[in-house]
Design brief:
It contains 6 helices and 8 strands; from the N terminus they run H-E-E-E-E-H-E-E-E-H-E-H-H-H. By secondary structure, it is of the alpha+beta class.
Length: about 220
């Protein structure tokens, strides 16, 4: 019986090892998104797992991007892959040597622990400590310490209301056409940009995939 049990244990399949990717960081999009290249010159778009940083239009958004850049830009990193998101980005914990970059962003007050996708509860403790010592974004006035997910939700709600307000002009306009796919610089205004995105499916004018085209004219 003991021999049989030993055989079964040896024969049982081992759990698959988590995927890791080694690459060099070549671009920083914002505080939690970047691009790197593998040794095979394969480009990998990375969304950092379990954290969320202020959006670029939020208070501290630019500084969060700079904080990430200071940690990883031009450096070799190891990605411990957790998932792929709906935009095709690799969702991962990121390490530079022994430094857990995701945790470091939270520890220094450059990022929030992302509650909806949190696996590592220690990030909550790091956030609490950063908040206590008013590090990074926690040094902002209380009114500006808005969680990025709440900020995005408020923006979506406002955008839906704005869309309802402009819908009659969109539907009644005969001057907009899908025959030519335009860039943002070629738009006559926000109404045409929205028409191009929603009616024509023009992906070029919504680079960050947030549903708002040509953000310079559709704020």
């Amino acid at each position: 019986m003991r021999h049989l049990l030993a055989f079964l244990l040896l024969a049982a399949p081992l759990p698959a090892a988590a995927e890791t990717i080694d690459c060099r960081v070549v671009g920083i999009s914002d505080g939690d998104t970047f691009t790197c290249l593998t040794s095979a010159k394969q480009q990998v778009k990375v969304r950092m797992a379990e954290i969320d940083t202020p959006e670029k239009a939020q208070p501290y958004g630019t500084r969060a991007r700079q904080a990430l850049s200071d940690l990883i830009f031009g450096k070799n990193v190891t990605l411990n892959v957790q998932d792929r998101d709906r935009y095709g980005r690799t969702v991962a914990r990121v390490h530079v040597g022994s430094t857990d970059v995701n945790a470091e962003m939270v520890r220094t007050g450059a990022a929030w622990a992302y509650r909806d996708y949190l696996k590592d509860k220690s990030l909550l403790n790091l956030e609490t400590t950063a908040k206590h010592f008013k590090r990074g974004l926690w040094s902002l006035p209380l009114a500006e310490q808005q969680a990025p997910w709440d900020w995005r939700k408020a923006k979506r709600t406002g955008r839906n209301q704005q869309t309802a307000a402009v819908q009659p002009s969109l539907s009644s306009s005969a001057s907009f056409s899908c025959s030519v796919t335009k860039s943002c610089r070629q738009m006559s205004g926000c109404a045409e940009a929205r028409f191009q995105l929603r009616q024509c499916g023009n992906p070029r004018i919504d680079g960050d995939g947030d549903g708002t085209p040509c953000e310079a004219i559709c704020r």
